[in-house]
Amino acid sequence: MKQAELLTLLYNDQATGGWTQGMARITRAILARIPIHPADMVLEVGCGLGKVAHTLQDSHPAAHVTGVEIHPVALANAASHGRATFVQGNLLHLPFPAACAHLLLALDSFDQVGIDLHQALAEAHRVLRPNGLLLLRVSAHPRLQGAHDVAFNTGRRYTRAEIAAALAHAGYAIERTSYANALLAAPVAALRSLELVRSINALPTQKSAGVYGSSIANAAIHKALALESAWLRRANLPLGLSLLVLARKQ
After folding, report:
1. Left, alpha or beta for 108 (phi > 0: left; psi -120 to 50: alpha)?
2. pLDDT of 10 higher than 80
3. What angle do CA 28, 29, 35 make, to 5 degrees?
4. pTM above 0.90, yes or no
5. Chain-centre distance of CA 138, in angstroms?
6. Which of 34, 49, 101, 217 has the greatest CB tally within 10 Å of its CB?
7. 93 with 123: CB under 8 angstroms?
8. Contact call for residues 36 and 135 (beta carbons, < 8 A)
9. Dist CA 105 CA 170 (whole Å)
10. CB-based contact 78:57 (threshold 8 Å)
């Protein structure tokens, strides 16, 4: 199974529903205290299935929620469900005027192969209005880089310090930082260690597809992320596979 075939799993809600729905809940938890007013423009760049964009549009029907996605398969899938608007575009060159968006979400998109983090942050800064908010989620802990990341196009993992420095350089003030995927961190770290010991660098194949297609695995992942989302409504998590940062344009 090739990388492109594995990537399509991300656009299959039956295969990755536990992850997609669970991470959408975590996003809602982080945004729970962020006001979204009528006529506010919300952008989700690299939106994939558009699960978060649809959820935000449903909960804020008077806002203008738009998902931006470069891959046509993902774009077609997202546009076929819900009420949010979707456009094809490159997150490094967004098809929007300056200072138009009140909130921009970049969820596992700024850490992808071929994405320059500084350029992506600068482009997000351009389209955000003064004092607009950026919610950024990236893969954390560079030492955990492994075959799974290669298969799903993750270019690199970041440390908290690296993201903080990049945001400051791009003109943002950090308002909140937390990790997520804490309950999955231990088994994934163990797997990465095994890969290193055995020098396993090959892409996941049918075995990975089987895991993602398992209803039991999806239910377990969703349950773990649901527990985390409840916690994140009131406090941060000190560890996890993903790093979440809420930052304000200065």
Report:
1. left
2. no
3. 70
4. no
5. 6
6. 101
7. yes
8. no
9. 16
10. no
Q: Is 66 helix (H, G, I), strand (E, B) or coil?
A: strand
Cβ distance 240 to 26 under 8 Å? no
Show Cβ contacts of residue 91 under 8 Å, excluding neighbours closer than 6 positions: 45, 46, 68, 70, 106, 109, 110, 115, 120, 123, 124
Q: What is the DSSP letter of 69?
A: E
- Asked whether the beta carbons of 69 and 88 are under 8 A apart, the reply is yes
Average of per-residue pLDDT values in the chain: 87
**DSSP letter at 143?**
G
pLDDT in tens, 49-100: 898 999 999 999 999 999 999 999 889 888 888 899 999 999 999 999 999 9
Spatial CA neighbour of 42 closest among 20, 22, 59, 29 = 59
Half-sphere exposure of 136 (CA within 13 A, CB side): 31
List Cα–Cα distances, 196 to 91, 111, 142, 190, 191, in angstroms.
33, 22, 13, 10, 9
Q: Are β-strands 242-249 and 128-139 bridged in parallel, bridged antiparallel, or unpaired?
A: antiparallel
What percent of the chain clears pLDDT 70, i.e. is strictly above it?
82
d(CA 159, CA 141): 6
- Token look-up 């344009």 returns 249
Beta strand extents in the chain (DSSP E only): 41-45, 64-69, 85-88, 101-107, 128-139, 172-180, 242-249
